[in-house]
Amino acid sequence: MMLSLGCLLSVGANAEPTAGQAPLSVANLVNGVCATCHGPRGISVLPKYPRLAGQNANYLMVQLMAFRSRTRGDADAVGFMWGMAAQLDDPTIEALATYYSQQKPIAGRSGDTSLMARGNEIFNNGLESEGVPACSACHGTQGQGMADFPRLAGQHEQYLLKQLGAFQNNMRDVAVMHGVAAGLKSKDMQAVAAFLQAQP
Amino acid sequence: MHRIGRALFRLGSRVAAGESGYGCVGLVAMMAMLLPWQISHAVPSFARQTGMACEACHTVWPELTHFGRTFKAGGYVLDNLRQVRGVDSQKAEFLDLATTPPLSIMIQAGYTQLAKAIPDTSNPAVKGSSQNGTVDFPQQVGLFYAGKVAPHLGAFLQLTYDNGSGTLGIDNTDIRLADLLVLPNEKTLIYGLSLNNNPTVQDLWNSTPAFGFPYVGSSAAVAPVAGTQIDGGLAQSVAGLSAYVFWQEAVYAELGFYRSAKQGSSNALTGGTGPLDGTSSNIVKGFAPYGRVAYEYNADRHSLEVGMYGAAFRLFPGGTAAAPMPVNGPVNEFRDIAEDLQYQYFGENNSVSVVATHIHETMNLDASYRAGSVANARDDLTTERLAISYFYQHRLGGSFALFSTSGSSDAGLYAAIPADTSGNPGVVTSLNNRPDTSGSIVELDYLPWLNTKFGIQYTAYNKFNGGSTNYDGAGRSAQNNNSLYFLVWLAY
Predict the structure, then answer these.
(1) CB contact under 8 A, A87 and B82
(2) Measured between beta carbons, which residues in chain A are less than 8 angstroms from residue B74?
(3) Which of A177, B323, B379, B447 sits CB 3.0–4.6 Å from B363 for a disulfide?
(4) Touching A: B residues 86-115, CB under 8 Å
(5) DSSP chain A
(6) Which domains can be identified in chain A, with CATH numbers?
(7) Do A2 and B151 touch (CB under 8 A)?
(8) In sequence order, what are the residues at sequence separation of 6 or more whose Cβ sits closer than 8 angstroms to the Cβ of residue A115?
(9) Which residue of A has its CA nearest to B148?
(10) Dihedral sign of CA atoms B165, B168, B170, B175 in order
C-alpha cells in the first residue's frame, strides 16, 4: 500500500516491530517508496541503486539524515535521495534503518578470479606504495561492516565504484574516505569492488 | 495527436462517405499539413512530486529510464510531499492529498522550412505557392495534471492548445490504479489498471507509438497519407481500460479493451454528446481488444527490452454531419500486430538508446468496399521504425532514425488526382495509389537545463505516398517534402 511520506511521520514512531519485520506503516513506506529502487527486502536488482539488506542501522540513519539535510552531495544523492528523504522525521528514519539492517544480505555475482584476488589483497592489506590502508581495518575482513562503518559485502560493483569516485573528487565529502581513495587507481578500485560484490 | 493517423482518419471518413472529389482532397491536404506529429511529453510536476531530478526517470525526456518505467507502472504515485490528511474514528485514512497539486506547463515553438513550397489553393483562379518558412508560436501549449491523485491512484492528464485548430482540447490521458505485491519468494509484482485514451499511451517503453520517436515534429510539414490504427489513428477518440502486471520489473503483460469516446461530436437527434450516430466516423463496434507482452533484461548499465503488442478494431465507417452514414451493418476490420525492441545504455556521462518497432496491419474493408469507396476488400499496411540516440551528460546529443510504411495499392484509400479534374495541386495524393513512404530523420538537441530543449530536426524522404518522383501526379517529388524544423520546447 502506498502512503506518502508525510502521512507516516506519526504512525511510524508508534509501531512495534519484531526483528526482521517492519511495522505496518514502515512496510508501506518500504514497499510503496523505497522498494521502487532498493527492493522490498533491500536487495536491489539494478546496480545503480545500493543494496541495503544487512546494512548497519547507524550508517543508514546517518545517510538518510544527510540526504534530508542535503549534506551528502554525490549526483545520485542529489538527484534521487534529497527529494525522497525530505519529509522523513527521525523516528521514521530510525524505523527504516532498523528494518533494512535486519534483512538478510546476499552475495552478489562473482567476477574475474584474478581481479577478485587482487581486490582481496588490497582490501585486507592495503597498498603501501600508494599510501592506501587496508579497508578491512574499518569495514571488516569480509566487508561485513563494523560499528558505524558500512557493510560493503555483496554491494553492487558499479555502486561501489561510483562511491569511490565520489570520495576521490569530494562529491561525497568524507575526509577519511577521501584520503583513502585518493591513492587508488581505477584498476585498483575495480578489483576491490569486484571482490566485495562477491562476498556474502 | 498524430498527423499521419489523423490524415488517414480523415481519409477514412471521406472514403466512407463516398466522396472522392477534388475539393475534399484539398481539404485533406490542408488538414494533413496542419496536424502535428505525435507529441510525447515528460512533465516537471513528477519531479516536484518526487523531489527527484528529471534524470531519475528520463535518459533525456521524454524517454524513460528503468526507474521511470517502474514509476509509471506504479501509478505515478511515488511522492515526498506534505499531505492533507483525513482519518475516520478508527484512524483509517480517507484523505491523502498533496498540499501542492502536480501541475505543469509545456510550451513548444517551431520554425519549419520545406524543401519546396506547396501550392496555394486558396484561390483556384490564381496559381501560386504557399509561404515557405512557417513560424509556429506557439506550436502547442500543454497544461498537465501529472501525479498522485490518491493512494494507489495517479493521473497523467493533458490539455493542449493546438495552433492548428486554435482550440484547447483533451490530449493524451492515462489514469492508473496500481499496487505492489511482494510474493512469498521475495519477488515483486506490480499490478494495476490503466484508463486511457490512446492505445500504447500507457506503455512503459519508448518503442511503441504513443511515446515513440520522433518525440516531436513540425506541424507545418507535409504528412504522408497512411498510418496504422494503433499508430495514433484512434488517439483521443477512444477510451480503453486495461489490466497489467509487471513481474520483478522484467516481465510485463497487459490486456485491455477500447471503445469509441469521441470528442466534439453530438447526436443529431438530441444534440447531446451521445449516443454516437452516423454523423461520426470510425466508430468502434463493441470493444476492441488490446494486448501487450514484454520482457526487459537489465545488467549493469544496460537495459534490453523485446516485446509484442497489438489490437483489433472493428470500425463502423460512419460519416460526417454533411454526409451521415448509419452506424450499423458491415464494418471495416483492422488487425494490428507489432513487435518492438528497446536497448538503453545509461552511463555516467553517456547514454545510448535504440528503439525499433514493426507494425503490420491487415485490413478487411467490407463496409467501405460495399460502399464502393475503396478498391479492395482486403488491404495491408506495414510500418517500421528504427531510431538511435546518443546524449552526453543528458544535455547534448542527437538521434538518427529510419522509417518506412508500405502496403497494398488501393485507389480508394490512397487516391490519385481525379482524371476529370484539372489543376489539382496533388501533394497529398498518390499517383500509383500506394501508401509507400520511407526516409530518415536527423535530430540534434541541446538542453541547457534538463527541462528545456532546443532542437534541429531534418526529415528526408526517399519515397512519399508511393513514389520518389511525381508521386502525386502533379509533379512533386518525395524530396520536395523534406523539412528542416527548429524547435524550442520548454516544460516547467
Answers:
(1) yes
(2) 2, 36
(3) B379
(4) 93, 96, 98
(5) ----TTTHHHHHHH--PBTTB--HHHHHHIIIIIHHHH-TTS--SSTTS---TT--HHHHHHHHHHHHTT---SHHIIIIIHHHHTT--HHHHHHHHHHHHTSPP-------HHHHHHHHHHHHH-BGGGTBPPTHHHH-TTS--BTTBPP-TT--HHHHHHHHHHHHTTSS--HHHHHHHHT--HHHHHHHHHHHHT--
(6) 5-101 (1.10.760.10), 113-197 (1.10.760.10)
(7) yes
(8) A190, A191, A194, A195
(9) A4
(10) positive
A31: nearest CB among B82, B85, B180: B180
Contact B188 A35 (CB under 8 A): yes
Nine-digit cell string for B23? 475539393
User: Is the Cβ pair A3, B96 closer than 8 Å?
Assistant: yes
pLDDT 10s digit of each residue in chain B, 492 long?
Answer: 433 333 333 344 434 443 333 333 333 333 333 343 455 566 888 888 888 888 888 989 899 999 899 999 999 998 888 888 888 888 888 888 888 889 999 999 999 999 999 999 888 788 889 999 999 999 999 999 999 999 899 999 999 998 888 999 999 999 999 998 888 877 889 999 999 999 999 999 999 999 999 999 999 999 999 999 999 999 999 999 999 999 988 999 999 999 999 988 888 889 888 899 988 999 999 999 999 999 999 887 899 999 999 999 999 998 888 888 888 889 999 999 999 999 999 887 899 999 999 999 999 999 999 999 999 999 999 999 999 999 999 999 999 999 999 999 999 999 988 766 667 889 999 999 999 999 999 999 999 999 999 999 999 999 999 999 999 998 999 999 999 999 999 999
Cα B290 to Cα B194: distance, rounded to the nearest angstrom = 12
Q: Which of B66, B80, B188 sits opposite A83 (nearest CB)?
A: B80
Determine, for residues B82 and A43 on separate chains, whether the beta-carbon distance falls below 8 Å: no
A84 to chain B: closest CA residue? B80
